[in-house]
Every structure is written in structure tokens, then in C-alpha cells.
Amino acid sequence: MLKIVFPGFNSKVSLHNHSDWSDGQDTLEAMCRGAKAAGLRLFGMSDHWVAAPKPNMREETWSMKLERLPQYVKTLKKLQDELNDNSFQLLIGVEADYFHENYTQVFDKLNNAGLDYIIGSVHYSDIFPIDHDAADWQGLSQAKIDEIWTIYWEKMIAAAELGTFEIIGHLDLPKKFAYMPSFDYMPMAIKVLDAAQKTGKAIELNTAGWDKPCQEQYPSNALLEAARQRHIPTVISADAHAVSQLTRHFDEAETICRALP
User: Which CATH number is 222's domain given?
Assistant: First the structure.
């Protein structure tokens, strides 16, 4: 599996990207060829692979079908053979959701799939879809919003402590639609970073947040500074869902990373 070293940030690298195999707009081939044409040197596809443990979680609307994983890997290996050279390297990954209920089975499957890396993310607070639609948040009480954030961080802490994900995906994702908790979540977030430091794993500066209602990268500047202080590698990634997004906001992201104390 991929090993990312500190400091890790580079605007010629992007490892969090999606195609029409999950919730992206463009094909795997178009995304990979587009990345090479855009001048990226290290590029990873990481389509969603979500093994939801409970019914009615709607994961089928944005995740690839679990049984398609071998064909996904096979398709990307063919593209590796064609595209990889001294100026460009394509890596094969997935973005997998962490669930308390089935993480052992998930890793048993993914660790034998021929992947180069796995991004660990949390998109559900219990069965609540954190980033599916702003309408899901509308009308919630502040107490319910606080509960969603609390469960999110509890799951992220558990995911980071496993040390199995090469990259921890978009920390502080629940801010996407600008519904914020009434409490200071930094103590819980710091536990995620402490676990990443202990296990030697990376986080990402995900530039997609600048195009969302929160109008801020994931994670916040405060969390990026805390990660820097712990010498946690930070990978700039676009979380691109189309060729047009492959390097979105990369200049701003690299400026932020290089200014970190």
C-alpha cells in the first residue's frame, strides 16, 4: 500500500477523485487522461465503495456496486499500463466508508483487491447522510445537529485509530452545508489527528469545500495547523467528480499549506 511522507503537499498530486463508476460525471478513462493532460504527476482514482450495514442508507445512488470492484481494478490496471511513464503515475484506490458494524469484513475484502491505497471517510452519522443534500439538514434542531456532529467525530476517531486507511478523508465534512455544532469540536478532531500521528497515516486538504456552502477547504485552517505540528502528511486533493475539477483551487491550497507554521 501507498506510504505518504511528511509534509506530503504538492499541487502536482491528487489522490481523491471520482468517476461515473460512483458519483462522478466522467469515465475512468476521461479522468485519468485528463489528469495527465493537466500536468499532474501522481494521480489516484478513488471511487466510492460503500458497504452500508443498515437498510435505507441510499448508498446505491452514489457508490459503485460492491461486486464491481474487480472490474474497476482491472480497468484501471489497463490504464496504468497505457498511461504510466516518467512524468505520470496512476494509482488505484477507493474511498471506503468506516462503519463500526462491519469494518473487519470491509478490510478483508479491500486488502485483497489489488488496490494501492484506501481513503477512509465517514459520510453517515448513524444512518443520517451527512453530505447528500442540504435538505436533509433543514429543519433539524440544534440538539440534533450537535448529535450528528458528535457521532461523526466518534466514527472518525475509530477509523483513524485502526491505522488501516492510508488517507483520512475530508475531516470536518459535516460543515459542508454550513450547519455547525454549538460546541467546540476541536478536542474530538485532535483525537483523530493524534491517532493519525501514532499510526503514521496522512490526511488531505480537500479543495472541494471551497465550492460548497461552507466556502472553506476540508479541514479548517486550525486542523491543518494542528496536523502540521504533529508532522502528519497532508495531501492536496480535488475530490474531483469531473475532468473540469481535477486541479480546482490547487494554487490556493498550496499557498495555505506552505504558510502553515
Answer: 3.20.20.140
